[in-house]
Amino acid sequence: MMKKSINRIINLLNKSVHLYVRTFFLLLFLFISFFSYAQLVDTIKYSLKQEPQLMVKIDVKNFFINNQLTQFKELKMGFNFNNLIRVGTGYSWLKSKRNPLLNQDSSELVINSVMLFAEYIFYAQNNWSAEIPVEFGVGRIAHVKNNIPLRKGLYVYYEPALIIEFSGFKYISLGLGTGFRFTSKNNDLFTEKLSKPVYIFRIKFRLKQIYKDINSNF
User: Which CATH entry fits the domain spanning 2-216: 2.40.160.20, 3.40.190.10, 3.40.630.30, 3.40.1380.10?
Assistant: First the structure.
């Protein structure tokens, strides 16, 4: 009875996120339609000409596979242009001790990928910011047992999202968001659908402030 109730809650949550994602992209389309396209392009061009700042951050992305919570962890490095545009690359990995696809305790679901990302910050005020990040990644998906791949294949994904970030701390910024991961894989090997809504938690390190304080102590 308890398990059925939990499954109903998860299914309802997934449906709500699907509706949220559709609404978000509709509002984004309307925003771009009413916003001056020429002004937006000029602002981006100006920002890309400014001196970039190095950034490092960690994203933890949660989603459900067969009603089981699963996590991607992502380590990213890139450049911040004028606090408006961020671009970079990173590495993403997932290793589930219990395979949610095969529903077996003795096997693991393993996904590793490299990605490119770009982020546009459309709001920034009083330590709060809102951004639209987009990721594109390529890697490998495998079912593994005793460190031996049972099945493996290509894994490709595209992921737009919306993230709210708070930068009121001295050395880190924290963010929360949601998005949708569209995936492509070898369906002959992996018949399960892995295109899912994602729930994002972020830690971003403020390297410039860290470096400044370290130098001031020497």
Answer: 2.40.160.20
